[in-house]
Write a structure and sequence with these properties.
Length: 545
Amino acid sequence: MHSHAGLQARPEDLVDLAALTAAYHDLQPDVSDVNQKVVFGTSGHRGSSLDGAFNENHILAITQAIVEHRAGAGITGPLFIGRDTHGLSEPAWRTTLEVLVGNGVEVLVDSRDGYTPTPAVSHAILRHNRAAPGSSDGILITPSHNPPRDGGFKYNPPTGGPAGSDATTPIAARANQLLRDGLNGVRRVPFERARATVGEYDFLAHYVDDLPSVLDLDAIRSAGVRIAADPLGGAGVAYWGEIADRHRLDLTVVNDRVDPRWAFMPLDTDGKIRMDCSSASAMANLIRTMQGGAQFDIAIGNDADADRHGIVTPDAGLMNPNHYLAVAIAYLFSHRPRWGAEVAVGKTLVSSSMIDRVVAKLGRRLLETPVGFKHFVPGLLDGGVGFGGEESAGASFLRQDGGVWTTDKDGLLLGLLAAEIQGVTGQSPSQIYAELTAEHGAPAYARVDAPASREEKARLGSLSPADVTASQLAGEPIEHILTKAPGNGEAIGGLKVVTRNAWFAARPSGTEDVYKIYAESFLGPDHLGEVQAAAREVVAGALAG
């Protein structure tokens, strides 16, 4: 824990915006350097212009590659584009428009010239494609909760959710080829011409006005639930006020500041500014607001593109994301009578097993997938998955009638769900979680990192169950060894080992020389420590074999 974690950012913690923007335009990436190539992770391409990892040439190449990809896929309708409040988002948005218009793509930008949350873009794509299936897609200029020095670029195909590797792999390959060729083949027009050519779309109005189809806002209003919302300086800043006004909710935006340096943010656990709404350090301001008395019943925080949620209650403070996912599932599948009996629950395999126990009690099918929200997209799209959630505080769910709402993570939606839960049950989500632990047990959960070379990470990502020779984990017999997700049979890019009361999953980091160990035990914190230690031994043995 950094000595200044949870404390106000200091002048020396702030990024130099002028230098950041200058580097975006001036630095030429070296495509022979693996750290400066285009790489699409689970949430698009991210990096900093200061490191030669997110520069104008990257955006020119990626956008041209997307243009070519959508042409090959027969996507002929409009492309919806949004951006968040990061310092690199505005220049990258401008570059992207220049290439899209230069290639004759129909583009729709925000009619208010404002910031656009990720779920609002997903909602727009799906809304358009109901009338013209498969004809529109979208781009999000955002690095999500990353520090202010970073930029990010995400592509959402006509499914409305994060692009799968079938799209991102060829897009990245083509973009890197364009970089190697000196951008030969990139078509662009001056920004002024591009901006004057694009169409407009009211993302905010369409999203906010449609919320009653997915939430019981009447219950929130009639119960007088008092809500505090902190967009953490992100793209949801204008949305929360409109939600309050249009739906007559007792909702206060406690922080409406936008500053690309995020000077108002407390530092995260490692001493960096990071808009991580699942971190108690980053959410310190909102937590203090809730500790100041009984002014609010529920407080909600979002990251910079509002695809993640942080829920703060008076009795428990910031909820662990796994705890809230379990509560959301227990509530939704008990209060959505129009969802059919066959509708499943989706979770990533590194999410809490509390979810497994809740789903079993509900008599529902569990869809356990690899990490990445893209795995929930097909089920959310056809209504076969009622709820899809990640341990990193990202989730979405169906409309009340069982139709698709968004196929990307929606932090605004999950925040308002907490208020609905309070309004309908008279209990906070944390109080309901306490009841779940009384029934199912209280798990201890944590994620830690362990050192690993590049070769070891590659080996870890391609293990098979036969590579694990251990028969016990922290005193319990091993029941399952997984390298593929049971929900869809896809490779998990690592290893998961399960016993009756505990489990661990090990996955290589995409950016650092470490692998991540996710672990959980229903036998308490001390046993969790034993599981984590045993996990290192199991992984070391598998790698050595």
